[in-house]
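Quiz preparation item.
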């Protein structure tokens, strides 16, 4: 994990706060509760929740949405189920580009999480079980499979936290969810997994006022706080004002396996860190892209199919209705181009380059056509600020020297800030 944290920090600091110009790519993320996929019970049986049928429904949904990252809840407790989804659904209809993460079941649950990802877009770098209070909460670290990696370019990392929190509305149920939320946020803080991260799955919460949700979205440590991309706090359950965002349940009437009652819950969500929301580290939420697939906002406490639903093709609506008692949620993020210079590409750079003078133990900053004040921070690879200089005077063409005495040999990140924002990041080697 130390290697992971250090490598991620180098990359995030190199990219963090720089000016991004345009996009290199757009990627999509989807979360979906599959409702007892591959796990039969006395109430979810081969007759009312047949896995062969579910494969066909899910194939239709995936063929329409084509997520690059796909996190699922309620997969049955066998590695064969992950292989089945991969082979029968993800890599079907001519697709061969999907893979799945490792199988975990530390909690010994009958309902598991799994992550599927597009290998043409991402590489799975590392994974871990964050907590197993009720069911495993998983962390998957992916990096963007940049086609220019061979040219010496840095890539972009994304931490994906996948959860299926304790269901129920009792005080004990809420306490369990609070325990799960604390476990995740403490893990992120302890591992210093700042930067690009999303937290998704079935949160099983009726409102944003629940303590567990507050811990996640109003965490006292802003660096690890998650945000709702559509910014819809409040009471979600049985609230007609929240109808466009409800994800459970697509059915009314009675069903032995499916929860019914119509759409009136927002259990399923994708949350993102500020880094993703603002595009600090090469990956940015694409505004207006977050949605519940099949949700047109006009079926509060009604089914997905009545009144008629034209938000998606009819075969997709039919598949969503029959697949699960949840709707999938999906959002998009852009992979950004970046430069390490000014906020206006037509302006000359504030800092041309940085280097190290080993003879005099000095860091050298070569100033461009800029006059003004700057703040400089030097970071170790462990993420701590080892030196900072405030109010440094810059003049066009000058070479500014910074004392490197006392810094141990190795790699550091130097960051220069001016009034218009961070304009320069570079890795330097001292020694």
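Solution:
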């Amino acid at each position: 994990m130390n290697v992971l944290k250090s490598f991620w920090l180098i990359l995030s600091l190199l990219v963090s706060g720089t000016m991004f110009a345009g996009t290199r790519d757009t990627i999509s993320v989807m979360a979906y509760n599959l409702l007892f996929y591959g796990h039969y019970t006395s109430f979810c049986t081969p007759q009312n929740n047949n896995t062969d049928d579910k494969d066909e429904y899910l194939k239709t949904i995936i063929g329409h949405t084509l997520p690059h990252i796909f996190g699922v809840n309620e997969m049955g407790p066998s590695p064969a189920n992950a292989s089945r989804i991969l082979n029968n659904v993800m890599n079907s209809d001519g697709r061969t580009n999907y893979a799945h993460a490792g199988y975990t079941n530390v909690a010994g649950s009958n309902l598991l999480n799994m992550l599927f990802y597009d290998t043409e877009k991402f590489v799975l770098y590392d994974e871990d079980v964050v907590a197993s209070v009720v069911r495993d909460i998983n962390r998957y670290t992916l990096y963007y499979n940049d086609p220019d990696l061979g040219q010496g370019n840095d890539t972009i990392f994304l931490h994906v936290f996948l959860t299926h929190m304790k269901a129920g509305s009792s005080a004990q149920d809420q306490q369990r969810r609070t325990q799960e939320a604390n476990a995740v946020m403490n893990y992120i803080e302890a591992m210093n997994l700042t930067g690009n991260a999303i937290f998704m799955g079935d949160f099983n919460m009726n409102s944003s006022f629940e303590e567990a949700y507050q811990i996640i979205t109003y965490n006292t440590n802003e660096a690890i706080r998650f945000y709702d991309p559509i910014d819809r706090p409040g009471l979600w359950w049985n609230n007609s004002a929240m109808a466009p965002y409800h994800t459970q349940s697509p059915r009314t009437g009675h069903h032995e396996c499916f929860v019914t009652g119509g759409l009136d819950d927002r259990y399923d969500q994708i949350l993102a860190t500020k880094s993703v929301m603002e595009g600090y580290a090469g990956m940015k939420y694409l505004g207006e892209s977050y949605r519940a697939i099949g949700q047109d906002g006009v079926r509060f406490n009604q089914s997905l199919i009545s009144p008629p639903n034209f938000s998606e093709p009819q075969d997709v609506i039919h598949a969503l209705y029959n697949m699960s008692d949840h709707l999938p949620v999906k959002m998009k993020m852009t992979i950004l181009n970046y430069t390490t210079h000014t906020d206006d590409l037509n302006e000359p750079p504030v800092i041309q380059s940085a280097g190290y003078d080993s003879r005099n133990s000095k860091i050298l900053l070569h100033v461009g056509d800029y006059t003004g004040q700057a703040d400089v921070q030097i970071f170790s690879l462990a993420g701590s600020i080892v030196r900072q200089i405030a109010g440094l005077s810059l003049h066009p063409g000058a070479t500014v020297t910074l004392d490197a005495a006392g810094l141990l040999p190795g790699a550091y990140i130097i960051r220069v800030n001016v009034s218009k924002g961070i304009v320069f990041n570079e890795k330097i080697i001292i020694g």
